[in-house]
Design goal:
Largest sheet: 5 strands, parallel
Radius of gyration: 17 Å
Helix content: 25-40%
Number of helices: 5
Order of helices and strands: HEHEHEEHEH
Structural class: alpha/beta
Distance between the termini: 12 Å
Number of strands: 5
Strand order of the largest sheet: 3-2-1-4-5
Length: 193
């Protein structure tokens, strides 16, 4: 079995660790979990190793999740559902297809519990019906950045992170804080061989 990196989707300090793992046909972890894993198997975990976590909220928040990059935001929402948040939070959740909008019921329930979270979904697939289509940068405005008086958290694939950074330059607005985590697509077992 190879090494894979995943962000926690469970709340900080939780007794149970949860992750979002995309079911990728031929994927090394997908194949293991779908066909080989059994109760009692030992899996070695390390980490956390990143620096993508919720800092104290002192201003408006703009959160951008690409695909399974939603995982750390679920953890952050769980944390805020317990402690509350006074500042508004806008979460863009961008995926390729409607079927990729996983955990949306959980996101919406946590957003409702927190009370000041706006959830915006974006689909990249042109052949599917949805209110917002294209890429997240097609829908981000200078207004979302509150004139720079906001903290931005972004977790997604490298092209998304790079596009958002370039888009901020185009808008001419620099957020007070910009925290991001790039993740690389995993390889399938055929590609790994």
């Amino acid at each position: 079995m190879g090494h894979r990196s995943y962000s926690f989707s469970s709340a900080q300090g939780s007794d149970e660790a949860t992750f979002l793992i995309r079911n990728l046909p031929g994927g090394v972890m997908s194949s293991y979990l779908g066909a080989q894993a059994k109760v009692g198997d030992q899996v070695t975990l390390t980490g956390p190793m990143g620096a993508f976590y919720l800092r104290p909220i002192e201003r408006s928040q703009l959160w951008l999740a690409g695909g399974t990059g939603l995982a750390p935001f679920l953890s952050m929402l769980e944390q805020l559902a317990e402690q509350g948040a006074d500042q508004p939070i806008k979460l863009y959740y961008a995926v390729t297809r409607a079927a990729d909008l996983v955990e949306l019921d959980r996101v919406n329930a946590l957003a409702e519990k927190i009370g000041n979270v706006t959830v915006v979904t974006v689909l990249a697939a042109e052949d599917e019906a949805h209110d917002r289509k294209g890429f997240v940068t097609d829908h981000l405005s200078a207004e979302d950045l509150c004139g720079g008086d906001c903290d931005v958290y972004l977790c997604g694939p490298p092209p998304m992170v790079d596009a958002v950074r370039a888009h901020f330059d185009t808008l001419g607005v620099t957020p007070a804080n910009f925290h991001y985590e790039k993740f690389n697509p995993t390889e399938t077992s055929a590609e790994a061989a």
